[in-house]
Amino acid sequence: MRPLILLLLMWLAAPVVAQESVRDLDQPGEHHKHLTTDTVDRWLFDARAEEIIRVDVSSSDFDPVISLVRRGADRAVVEVIVAEVDDPGSRSHMLARLQVDGSYSILVHGPGHRGGGNYRLYVERLSSIPLPDARSWAEGTLDEEGYGHVRFAAAKGDSVAVSGRGFAELIGPSGRVLDGWAGCFDVARDGDHYARVRGSKGSRFRVEIRSARRRPLADAANHQEALPSQGLDEWVFRGHAGDFRTLVVEGDGLLVRVVPRSDEPAAGLERRPPLRWLPSHSKGLSRRFAFVLGREAGYRVQVRSTSSRDNSYRMVFGDSGIAIQPGPARNSALPVGGDAFYTFASKPGQVLRLDLQSADFDPLLRLSDAQGAPLGENDDGGGGLASQYGWLVTQGGLVRAQVAAFGNGGGGDYRLVLSDVPVPLLEVGQPRTSALGSGAVEYWHVEAKRGQVLWLAARSSAADLGLALFDPTGVQVGSDRGTGADRGALLALRMPRDGRYTLSVGCVSGQGAYQVQVLDPDGGR
């Protein structure tokens, strides 16, 4: 019995040789077939040297794996042209330029030669012409199907610009169509690439392929550059999370974009967007960008010519933010359709206000935090055409203010003032009176100890009031609207920490005079 058991175990452990189903690939195009479970479909065809075989297999029943081999006279495999390809998902691609005349097979099966089901096989058999070494362009005649292909070698990390009448798409070494921008493509893999042209059969075509001129871009850069027709400049720089940059490119017939380096993906669990855009307006021959970097990485500024002739451009790049502090007014001028940026520090409990005035244009204020997240904006809050924005700082840190023209069409002289608005101290047991306009908010400071219980009350006969209390770190610890007597609000809280708290009194509806006070029930008042 033992020899029989040993033979059985050896049989179970032996690899399973998948059965083959032979099919003739009598013509290219789309084929729908069924793969028998645990079987390999072998598609047979004869081909000539320099012919390009492009294969796309997809299935909703199994994960397709494909390969390409050359066969001998007895159909035995004599050379593996493309080893097994198993792209992620339920679709695989393959491309090969054949070196010799001969008989070939496309193999289709499941992972580990297991599985099966319905699948779609799409095969293209193409010819191509090489891009001459000494030129950036190639020309030829479209085939009977109205296709032409220009072949060129590219390396991972390159960027190329492709142009030409009838240019349709760029095919990479794996057979996939590459995603592009304005005819520009990032090369993700070493090898031959194919620029495909479509049109009427027999017509002549010309394709131009230029590699990007890649150069470093320093902060505070100001460049005047010449750019050939249909050319691509790529400026590279490194940055850190939170870095702020503005970019202005002036020139005719240009397209501009800012993107991360394609060969430097986000590391680890980093999922923040690589760029956070701030509103900025392009006008005339000026293309303007303002952005905050989301992570430490390499970035690129790409400038693409769409002109049929050589042209030039001017580029200004860097951190254009101007640091300011509360105090004297700052006078400056805004270019037509442009913007200006200012930065300042803030801390919890402050009440800050920005006033922007101009006699030349309708001013607009926008505020954002250090990461570029919007904080608020104002157009006419200062009366007339002036802008004013005031707020209680609940989270300290850098604030960025953007000065622009409403509608992005104006420009001229302006005056900007940053004020640290004094906040009066509200003593325990001493009521204070003030007045609120419609929708307005006023702030009061309250000194308290950790564990102290305080009652905070506001009332008015002319306005509905709301209260909110913020601790010394800017965290809201309580709020109320309308639970007090008449049209007032009332809070009763135990203070979570020592320090100076900020009480906001807001006018929910109506307007007019109000009274506010703080009581300490344990202090006998």
Write the layout of secondary structure elements.
Layout: H1 2-13, E1 19-24, E2 29-35, E3 39-47, E4 52-58, E5 65-71, E6 77-85, E7 91-97, E8 102-109, E9 117-126, E10 129-130, E11 137-141, E12 147-154, E13 159-163, E14 167-171, E15 180-181, E16 184-186, E17 191-198, E18 204-211, E19 213-216, E20 221-227, E21 232-239, E22 244-251, E23 254-260, E24 275-278, E25 286-293, E26 297-305, E27 311-318, E28 322-323, E29 330-334, E30 339-346, E31 351-357, E32 363-369, E33 374-378, E34 387-392, E35 397-405, E36 412-420, E37 432-436, E38 441-448, E39 453-459, E40 463-470, E41 476-481, E42 489-494, E43 499-510, E44 512-519
Parallel strand pairs: 1-3, 10-12, 19-21, 28-30
Antiparallel strand pairs: 2-9, 3-8, 4-7, 4-9, 5-6, 5-8, 11-18, 12-17, 13-16, 13-18, 14-17, 15-16, 20-27, 21-26, 22-25, 22-27, 23-26, 24-25, 29-36, 30-35, 31-34, 31-36, 32-33, 32-35, 37-44, 38-43, 39-42, 39-44, 40-41, 40-43
